[in-house]
What does this fold into?
Amino acid sequence: MFLAREMRGPLGLLDRKAMRVRAQAILRRLEVDLPLDVPIARLSVAEQQFVEIAKALSLDARILVLDEPTATLTPSETEHLFKVMRELRAAGVAIVFISHHLDEIFEICDRITVLRDGEYVGSTDVADVTIDRLVEMMVGRRIENSFPPKPARDPAAPVVLEAVEVQLRRGGPVSSFQLRAGEILGFAGLVGSGRTETVLSILGEYPAARCKIRVDGAEARLRDPADGLARGIGLLPESRKEQG
It folds into this structure.
């Protein structure tokens, strides 16, 4: 939180006690309970985001830019973040909030600015625009049906990826699934439920207790994401900054 601007005592030595007290005060203001002795790399992505906000507050920042801060937060964490944002706004802090979740935009923002293909499209007060109009500004055309009917599943479509058994840790549950050509398979769950670890295990990036998969019908053992890429499997990880 104080990297490259450490607090020092009269003799120029690091004043660790003062920095700790200051950090505790800022985190208390955010109502975030984080252990101060844990390396930042061992915190969750959500906790790291709150540390970044705390760092900005320690600088007495008057403008805060939050780029997709809720992407990896649970609903309760998102609500807590919004509570903090409202308090900062009341204290005079200006916030730029970037999100692809339109419901969040309408809940927390005062004004909306739309960019498309790197160009400015327009700005409007939240109270003066509807979701349909906002979507039209974003995509450049009217969306007559926001939820078009899904095509019927093709039972004859070949299985391109089959997770025969994936067990993240000994004694834990065993997962299995099939992905057919032309399908979109979704994994749902809270942060920490094992969604990311399951995918990383398949790619050989997470040391699962058991991991047996088949690619295009043949048993495969991917040892790292490069092996997956060679088999036509790409990954956009949870933390693009650290894992991309």
Notes: Residues 48 and 58 are 15 Å apart (CA to CA). The first strand starts at residue 63 and ends at 67. The chain has a mean pLDDT of 88. The two ends are 24 Å apart (CA to CA).
